[in-house]
Amino acid sequence: MARIVMKFGGTSMAGSERIRRVAQIVRSQADAGHEVAVVVSAMAGETDRLVNFCREANPLYDPAEYDVVVASGEQVTSGLLALTLQALGAKARSWLGWQMPIHTDKAYAKARIGNIDAEALIASMQSGEIAVIPGFQGLSDENRITTLGRGGSDTSAVAIAAAVKADRCDIYTDVDGVYTTDPRIVARARKLKAVTYEEMLELASVGAKVLQTRSVGLAMKEGVKVQVLSSFTDENAPNADSIPGTMIVSDEELEKMELENEIVERQLITGIAHDKNEAKLTLTRVPDLPGAVSNIFAPLADAAINVDMIIQNVGRDKGETDVTFTVPQADLVRCTSILENAREKIGFNRLISDTKVAKISVVGVGMKSHAGVASTMFTSLADRKINIQAISTSEIKVSVLIDEDETELAVRVLHTAYGLDAE
Ligand code: ADP
Ligand code: ASP
Ligand code: MG
Q1: Is the beta carbon of 138 within 6 A of some atom in ligand 1?
Q2: Taking every annotated instance into account, which residue ranges of this chain make up the domain ACT (predicted)?
Q3: 125 lies in the same domain as 180
């Protein structure tokens, strides 16, 4: 017998029929003798709908009220799943974020989980009751509801798994594991049997939305065993206990699996991700002087705007230079207005923004000890006449910024170039 946290995403919860399938999967784990807590997302599309209502009500919405609105999607599905489980004859109840409670900071719309009072939850699970928990939501110390940022139910699930010391956290979604790249873009993407926390963290942070970045960081920190698998299965599908999905594991665990021949030798590149949610900004004719760059980025940091790629061109004759960088598209309006307000202090000429860009990244721990990964990327893209607008690297990642229209082509070309295509 194990203690398991199961999480179901939006497509898994989209409508009565899907929820019935989820209830069957949950029930089969409870029937196998496990103690079960379930974390659910809102129905697919529901959070987008609610976000739009907020924007229509007030474009400069108060994030605390936004949270009141957008947290409601998960309240509906948690109640519906508890009802459906009861209809199947199982004992189940819902636990809203404030009822446990799941404590968070007060960064409304992107709150971070602090601690979770899980005692009552554990007692209920031990009594054989299935706990159904709405993902995405928590409670601030101002006693107001918070949400954890888009895709946050993954993080709720991992945090609850850590709080109840679960043996496993199974993340059910609409694909049956983590692939070498988004299987919706590359039909020949390969499913990975296991991927390390470090690589998954990097893949998630550069756009592989199968897991929210924070959920992976938390799982790594707390040592939570995470499995990604599909809820779109029939009754004869293998049970989650046989690990049919992708396990997120430590480096040591992966090495052990390799030694035991459970997985074939690792490739240099583990995966490729794309992100169409970045915007590129260029400030022209910035003075080429000490402090100039700081005048640009300090106010953005103060506004908690995350700057990713940065390029400063070589200074021109007149002691001026252009500075180009990327920010999340969602922050573009705020970013532009901050820079316009600081125009005099920074002393730039023009501010040019471009949202028709995409960031393509290749990730793999193998590149720590291998040269040539970046050059393969640049050559393969050049062969297809794909122009690179910016580059950034980390120890296990190379990212390039390209025209958004070339996203799919670039991902496919690189997938082939690194030998990742399935037979
Ligand atoms: P959920 O609603 O269950 O949280 P998401 O839409 O957030 O699901 O994440 C699942 C989606 O992630 C898949 O449908 C797939 O298109 C996308 N995805 C992107 N990169 C990958 C990858 N490397 N492996 C698997 N899925 C990926
Ligand atoms: N419903 C939320 C969202 O769409 C949280 C989640 O599904 O993980 O972002
Ligand atoms: Mg998700």
Answers
A1: no
A2: 281-365
A3: yes
Residue 9 Cα to ligand 3 midpoint, Å, equals 6
Could you give phi then psi for residue 399, rounded to 5 degrees? -120, 145
Question: Mutation test of ligand 1: which of 6, 182, 233 has the most ligand atoms closer than 8 Å to its C-beta?
Answer: 182
Q: Is 10 in the pocket of ligand 1 (CB under 6 A)?
A: yes
Across-strand partners of 168? 4
Q: Is the CB of 178 under 6 A from ligand 1?
A: yes
pLDDT band at 145 (very low <50, low <70, confident <90, very high): very high
Contact criterion met (CB below 8 Å) for 154 and 40 = no
Query: Residue 265: pLDDT above 70?
Result: no
Contacts of 165 (CB under 8 A, 6+ apart): 3
134 CB within 6 A, ligand 2: no
CATH number, domain containing residue 254: 3.40.1160.10
CATH number, domain containing residue 295:
3.30.2130.10
Distance 14 CA to ligand 2 centre (A): 12
Give residue 232's domain range.
3-259
Contacts of 172 by beta carbon, 8 Å cutoff, 6+ apart: 6, 7, 8, 9, 12, 22, 25, 229, 230, 231
- Please identify, by atom number, the ligand 2 atom nearest to the C-alpha of residue 148: 5
Q: Does residue 318 carry a pLDDT above 80?
A: no
As a whole number, the mean pLDDT across the chain is 95
